[in-house]
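Long-time lurker, finally posting.

We've been working with SpoIIE family protein phosphatase (Oceanitalea stevensii) and I want a structural starting point before designing mutants. I don't trust myself to interpret raw outputs, so I'm hoping someone here can both generate the structure tokens and explain anything notable. Sequence follows.
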Amino acid sequence: MTGPDSGVPAPVDSPTPPHGTVRMRPARPAEPPRELPEALAVRSEHLLEALPDPTYVVDIDLSTRPAGSRVVWVSSSLAEMTGYSVAELRESAPRLVATHGRDTSALLEALAAGLPVSVVRSVPRSDGTSYRATVSFSPLGAGAGGWHRWLVTVRDATEELASAVLAEERAAAEERAQRGLSLVARVSDILADVDSTTALTEIGALLVRRIVPWAAFYADGTQLQKVTDLAGISYHRRDLRRQARLRGDIPDPVVGLFLDTRMQTVVVDPREPAEEGTLTGELLALVAQDDTAPDDGPLWLLPVLGRKAVLAVLAVRPPDRETDEQALPTGELTTVLELVARRVGMAMDNLQLYDREHRLAETLQRAMLPEQSHVEGVDVWSYYAPSSEHAQVGGDWYDVLDMGEGRVGVVVGDVVGHDVEAAAAMGQLRSVVRAYAAEFVEPGKVLGRVDRLVASMRIARPASFVYATLHPRPSGETWDVAYSRAGHLPIVQVSGGRATQLEGANGPLVGFGGRPRHTGHAVARPGDVLVFYTDGLVERRDRSMRDGVAALVAAAEKIDAPDAAGIGEELLQELADAPEDDIAVVVLRVPDPASDPTHTWSGPRERRWQMPMDPKTIARARHAVLRACEAWDVEDTAAAELVASELVANAVMHGWGRVDLRLRDTGDGLRIEVEDANPSPPVVREGRVGRVGGFGLHIISRLAEWGWRPTPAGKVVWARVRAKEPWAQRSEQQEG
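Top reply, 14 upvotes:
Generated this for you. Predicted structure of SpoIIE family protein phosphatase:
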């Protein structure tokens, strides 16, 4: 039994601080106390009084129940510390440090074993106050009848415990700081992957795992919406300043957050209904629809700041500190969330800035490329792809010229570099070549004139190109091919299943001629193919240019596609799987009226075209679909032609950039894909009397299955036109 009546110190009720941990150490076997001479006893009392801490000596008998105790001696310093007299302490000293606690059993075991032990106790003073003290029991020996004598030291531990509490608080603060720093570092790792389409979702999940119950990002476009990737919304944004003026004095904290470019935290209570038509109301409605969001509690809103504008809003539900012991203090939580919002904002701003530069560069590049690659009388297919490692702008170009009287001109060139200066030089050269091609017939003279003009223009970038003209001979059975090269790769001609290089008429790069240019000649027969290209199609780090051209020749000999688009598609699949430079390709096929359009061939049943944003593109798209269906032996083409026409018309009317048309025979139908740079999804509108447009998707829905998907450059709208039974049977036979 322990307690005030037992005379045995008992544990405290509160958790024992580090200094209150019971400490034990081995003791020498106790010897029976001996009666000391009076002089020696007096000397011992003087020695005990000289101890720095208040003490008393007590005899404890643990063999009885309850245990007995009697005070033998009390120091005057203990009396001064507690305010009690020495006589009073002789009666109450054992109870002075005896309280109940969790370390009772450990204390009793130590005393029974005769081992020194220390505990932390609350010691009362005579004035009713108390103080925390470290009470140490040191064995002095065993006496007769089960009595054991102990020296008890009562040391004031107030300052020591305060230092321990301060150390614990500092350790907790360091741990919270480490949590915050590790979270921000992890956010930086996530933001390093700028191509991730789920970066903001991952950051929100990270915040939920570490510091808050719920988090999400919202951005404003045509309406407020939840965003998951760093691209955010950089198009079709509402004029929030105008909206704020129109709303007048109606409070709208979210609009204020978007318009104020300072870092701040706005608190919104979902239990207080927001005004209808406000951004705050839109946000609260979105949060209410989110199944992962908690049902109650306030929302903290922080701006995701870019350089000059607020790009999004970070919405979080703060933790409940009454139930969450690990919750960060309000100030520290706000600091961490602000750091996260700032880092996300800079990453979004950089990505959108890069995207704007990318679009500008690509628009510049496309503007300098030709807007027409279809010439009556010949089958022409052209393709351009910038290198993904550069700024989507460079010096590769092609041009297809309808020169009248059945004459066709083809130019493919390459200016050194992948920057705006290279693109500008390319644009100048293209204009110069077009001008001289209209004036002179012979390619060698055209290149000679270009040399003189480029030398006077002082274009700093070296460039290579090949210029060729084709026109039917009077007999009508063959075509004459005239060409001249300025340091460019040779044209590849495929005739009768054999590919050869037109290596003649070569000279220095443009601007370095200094002497007359020559013109080479070749004969092309019906069905022959001419391939013009830049080095991006054949050059790789793991092979020489010569080996690359040899690979092109070998690939061209194996192709048996009946149209230029099919030939170009096979060349790209064979050679452009991992391009390391810009690619420009023009494939020209001399028509062969005597060829069998239903012959079978082994190439891929896929086609692609790149077309400008021009109303004429709609007619070109219909023509491209008809040519592909003819090559694939598709008889019923009306539905496919109409669907492709409507998809391309929508892209021309509502998109920007360029139009990419792709066709693929899936075995049970024709899949048509149209890509443009407008990321906004297609919208089906109800047809009304007097409305112009709005019926295209209704037509497509009746003829095909359709859908859309976002892309890094915009969106793709696709449709699948199901095949009728004869076509499906032929496809199965060909696949078998």
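Before you design anything, note these points.
Residues 284 and 404 are 65 Å apart (CA to CA).
The chain has a mean pLDDT of 79.
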